[in-house]
Amino acid sequence: MTGNFKVFPDSNIWLYALTNQDEDRKQKAEDLVEENEERICISTQVINEVCLNLKRKASFGEAEISRLISSFYLNHDVIELNQEILLKASELRMKYSLSFWDGLIVASEFAANAEILYSEDMQNGLLVENKLKIINPFIQNPKSKI
What does the alpha-carbon distance between residue 107 and residue 83 come to, in Å, rounded to a whole number? Predict the structure, then answer.
């Protein structure tokens, strides 16, 4: 991996970092975000998923949601969905048997030139097109680390 690579935390990483659902995972997610702060990119899809779940499951109010959205745009590269990403997602879904939403996330990462996707929902260690590695940071002894 290059020295200045981008990382892309999936929705679940942000949800653990921003809520008290699971203290162990919260700490790991917070550490991951803090350690990679300068390299993080995020898609509008992930922002939407995080905000929806924070409203539904953590009773976040609109003021908190607005501050969070502003923080994402202020502190990270935000990838907005476009035709190129939507078509790449379709290609990736066919090639890697990804779900609809996971295909969009992976395609967004390609648009951002990210090298690591942190997610507990996708196949740990999967290398997509010899460029993007999926890592589950919650596995006790993951086979692949940064």
Answer: 11
Strands 41-43 and 77-79: parallel
Q: What is the pLDDT of residues 82-106, one digit of tens each?
A: 999 999 999 999 999 999 999 999 9
What CATH number does domain 6-135 carry, 3.90.1150.10, 1.10.8.60, 3.40.50.1100, 3.40.50.1010?
A: 3.40.50.1010
Q: Are 124 and 134 in contact (CB under 8 A)?
A: yes
Strand partners, 117: 8, 134
Cβ atoms of residues 54 and 18 within 8 Å: yes
Q: Are strands 132-135 and 77-79 parallel, antiparallel or unpaired?
A: unpaired
The reported pTM is: 0.88
- Encode pLDDT of 117-143 as tens digits: 999 999 999 999 999 999 999 996 544
- 3-state secondary structure (DSSP) of residue 54: helix
**Paired tokens of 2:** 């290059």
pLDDT (tens digit per residue) in 4-32: 789 999 999 999 999 987 889 999 999 99
Q: Do residues 106 and 50 lie in contact, with contact meaning Cβ atoms separated by under 8 Å? A: no
